[in-house]
């Protein structure tokens, strides 16, 4: 029998229709309450619910997967137990101001007693009252601590104090253990990424850009961002050369106040019939100077998105036509050169490919524009030691459109072909978390990477693929999701997958701004994904290695040559809410690899013994009398709450120091012969300094 050890925080809605309670007194005069009947409306998705009274099975029933059900039962409050058939999700907990014991087992299990140390103590929460009954919205489930005995309900003022809530438990309920092998092929490289693969964006959205009745951008645009904020400076400097892309939806409405500008240059303002609901905006050269001084001080590698609609007009629907007027862009580039500003790459346009988002331009016209812009760049940078790259189109992948673009622009014009990814859907989607933790959903975007890589190889081998913008969920990201720990499952999986499919650069939307910022939009304090990005940037090198595994699809793994040192770094992502994976990492150069069901079924003892005999399977170079070691970085959510804004590294919360510095990201050193354990719903970077990998030389 498995026992619940931890209950994580979660938010729920439940509408309680009716409650009937009977009050009695025992011989000692202590009041006791019996829950006669509870009636509420909620969706219970495919869970077996078992109610145990006085250590016996009261009833066991299966609720509908999608339709709403009414659940009626009678049970004494202090003896209430809720069980789940498939050991995956605890669906219903009914509590009052009492301690309850929660077991996880199948319907034919025999419940005898709660052993000491495994009875969770549930502290009380709160309710809000509405005339038709108790209505709970946004209730945060309480923390759970171990205690040794049940609490007897004494004098409780019932009225509306009875608390009922639905809890969906995404973390360790009944922890299973699965054994497996991960094989890393260090003999050949399957892809290579740029040294500055990790990239973050700064957008143009004003503070009054709102989605779903929220306005999460605040003052984070390229025009209004507080460049003097010390946390911003330290957060960027921690990367020791972070690539930043300035661009976004309003990019093609930005005017540069330099040279012979043909129209007034005013700040963005809301405009009913404007593109994306805003007027044209203005970048003053004073602000451009400030940005470049800041980028120079923080060693930023800059990609700047140019306005591709200047001089054009709307023809029909979202289609724009006419010649691109390059004069404003040319004057802007001239000014930047005259000031000595180092621009790594110029990007042309934003989301104008295919059918576009707010606007689109035909591929043949776009390709001719790129030829023209490339000539401008070459002429203006003639005699310079460095010529910036040309990147385009910064839109959603449409194979026919992208192919045409490469064919029209021709050889050696486009240095990088960029596309955008928002594969989690709308930020308002209530299923964001379930999508993030679903390997099948995560795998869907692989086709985009594969098809783009083929398109580049066939029609533009002189170019390389970039993800120019990716925020997971569009419309500013998902509140309480995109800025929390759970988003790192999506983000790091994206970095691993994109690398594997020949993506050179991956730009995260955003560095700051919206719900998906690496930094909080008002405090500038790093969100969990900031630390995920920083660890990747520091640990994962350019060379991508092939990985094979016999583990569950819920355990995802990616391998690179280590960055700045010899060896191999493995990224492992455990999407399971119950299974701890104990893995044997082996080198494909080892002829004794076992990848089969035999490995999955071995006992814990034999597995540990095999690890000791094979040194975790990795062919290593032993050094004198010292044991070989690996370095582990285990990432977990604070207090087990997936939607926390605090990430924990090897048991220590990642929080700014008292002086506002980025905390140290130190690994734990582990004997390479010991098993690798990946706990449920956690992420780990594992560095093997002595892993023999010819591809990494």
Map the helices and strands.
Elements: E1 2-3, E2 11-25, E3 31-43, E4 48-53, E5 56-62, E6 68-70, E7 75-76, E8 81-84, E9 92-95, E10 103-104, E11 119-122, E12 128-130, E13 133-140, E14 144-147, E15 163-166, E16 176-185, E17 191-192, E18 198-202, H1 230-237, E19 243-246, E20 254-257, E21 281-284, H2 285-297, E22 301-306, E23 313-316, E24 319-321, H3 327-338, E25 345-348, H4 363-380, E26 389-395, H5 399-409, E27 416-421, E28 425-426, H6 432-436, H7 439-444, H8 446-459, E29 464-470, E30 473-474, H9 487-500, E31 503-508, H10 528-539, E32 540-549, E33 555-562, E34 568-574, E35 579-587, H11 597-600, H12 604-614, E36 629-637, E37 647-649, E38 652-653, E39 668-671, E40 676-678, E41 682-688
Parallel strand pairs: 16-35, 18-19, 18-31, 19-22, 20-21, 22-25, 25-26, 26-27, 27-29, 28-30, 29-31
Antiparallel strand pairs: 1-10, 2-3, 2-13, 3-6, 3-7, 4-5, 4-8, 9-15, 11-14, 12-13, 16-32, 17-32, 23-24, 32-33, 33-34, 34-41, 35-40, 36-37, 36-39, 36-41, 37-38
Describe the protein's architecture and organization.
The protein has 697 residues and is of the alpha/beta class. It is 18% helix and 31% strand. The protein folds into three domains: 2-174, no CATH class; 177-188 and 561-696, Immunoglobulin-like (Sandwich); 193-540, Alpha-Beta Barrel (TIM Barrel), CATH 3.20.20.80. α4 (363-380) crosses α5 (399-409) and α5 (399-409) runs parallel beside α8 (446-459). One of its GO terms (cellular component) is extracellular region.
């Amino acid at each position: 029998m498995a026992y619940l050890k931890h209950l994580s925080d979660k938010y729920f809605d439940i509408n309680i229709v009716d409650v009937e309670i009977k009050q009695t007194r025992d011989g000692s005069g202590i009041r006791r309450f019996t829950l006669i009947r509870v009636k509420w409306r909620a969706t219970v998705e495919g869970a077996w619910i078992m109610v145990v009274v006085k250590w016996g099975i009261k009833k066991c029933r299966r609720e509908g997967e999608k339709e709403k059900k009414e659940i009626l039962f009678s049970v004494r409050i202090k003896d209430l137990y809720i069980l789940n058939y498939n050991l995956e999700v605890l669906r219903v907990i009914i509590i009052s101001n009492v301690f309850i014991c929660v077991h996880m087992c199948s319907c034919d299990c025999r419940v005898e007693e709660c052993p000491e140390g495994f009875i969770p103590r549930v502290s009380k929460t709160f309710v809000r009252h509405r005339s038709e009954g108790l209505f709970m919205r946004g209730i945060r489930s309480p923390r759970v601590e171990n205690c040794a005995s049940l609490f007897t309900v004494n004098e409780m003022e019932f009225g509306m104090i009875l608390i009922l809530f639905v809890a969906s438990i995404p973390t360790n309920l009944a922890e299973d253990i699965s054994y497996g092998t991960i094989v890393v092929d260090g003999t050949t490289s399957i892809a290579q990424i740029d040294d500055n693969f990790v990239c973050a964006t700064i957008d143009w959205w004003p503070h009054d850009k709102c989605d779903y009745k929220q306005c999460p951008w605040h003052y984070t645009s390229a025009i209004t961002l507080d460049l003097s904020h010390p946390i911003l400076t330290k957060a960027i400097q921690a990367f020791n050369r972070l690539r930043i892309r300035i661009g976004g939806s309003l990019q093609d409405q930005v005017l540069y106040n330099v040279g012979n500008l043909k129209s007034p240059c005013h700040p963005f303002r809301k405009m009913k019939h404007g593109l994306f609901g805003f007027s044209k905006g203005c970048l003053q050269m004073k602000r451009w100077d400030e940005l470049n001084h800041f980028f120079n001080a923080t060693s930023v590698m800059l990609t700047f998105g140019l306005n591709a609609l200047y001089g054009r007009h709307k023809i029909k629907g979202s289609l724009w036509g006419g010649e691109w007027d390059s004069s404003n862009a040319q004057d802007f580039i001239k000014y930047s050169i005259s000031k000595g500003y180092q621009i790594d790459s110029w990007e042309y346009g934003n989301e104008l490919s295919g059918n576009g988002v707010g606007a689109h331009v035909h591929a043949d016209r776009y390709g001719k524009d790129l030829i023209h812009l490339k000539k401008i760049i070459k002429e203006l940078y003639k005699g310079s030691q460095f010529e910036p790259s040309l990147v385009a189109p910064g839109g959603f992948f449409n194979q026919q459109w992208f192919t045409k673009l490469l064919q029209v622009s021709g050889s050696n014009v486009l240095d990088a072909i960029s596309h955008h990814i928002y594969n989690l859907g709308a930020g308002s989607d209530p299923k964001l978390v379930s999508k993030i933790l679903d390997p099948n959903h995560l795998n869907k975007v692989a086709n985009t990477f594969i098809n783009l890589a083929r398109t580049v190889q066939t029609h533009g081998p002189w170019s390389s693929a970039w993800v120019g913008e990716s925020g997971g969920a569009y419309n500013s990201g998902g509140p309480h999701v995109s800025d929390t720990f759970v988003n790192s499952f999506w983000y790091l999986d994206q970095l691993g997958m994109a690398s594997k499919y020949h993506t050179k650069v991956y730009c995260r939307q955003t560095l700051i701004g919206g719900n998906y910022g690496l930094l909080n939009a008002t405090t500038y304090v790093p969100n969990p994904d900031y630390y995920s990005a920083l660890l990747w940037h520091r640990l994962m090198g350019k060379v991508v290695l092939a990985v094979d595994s016999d583990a569950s699809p819920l355990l995802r793994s990616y391998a690179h040559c280590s960055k700045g040192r010899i060896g191999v770094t493995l990224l492992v992502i455990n999407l399971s809410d119950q299974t701890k994976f104990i893995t044997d990492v082996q080198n494909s150069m080892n002829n004794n690899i076992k990848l089969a069901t035999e490995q999955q079924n071995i006992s814990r003892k034999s597995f540990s013994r095999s690890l000791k005999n094979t040194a975790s399977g990795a062919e290593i170079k032993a050094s004198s009398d010292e044991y070989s070691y690996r370095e582990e970085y285990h990432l977990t959510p604070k207090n087990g709450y997936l939607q926390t804004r605090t990430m924990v590294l090897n048991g220590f919360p990642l929080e700014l120091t008292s002086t506002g510095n980025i905390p140290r990201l130190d690994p734990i050193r582990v004997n390479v012969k010991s098993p690798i354990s990946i706990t449920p719903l956690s992420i780990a970077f594992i560095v093997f300094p002595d892993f023999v990998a010819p591809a990494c030389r």
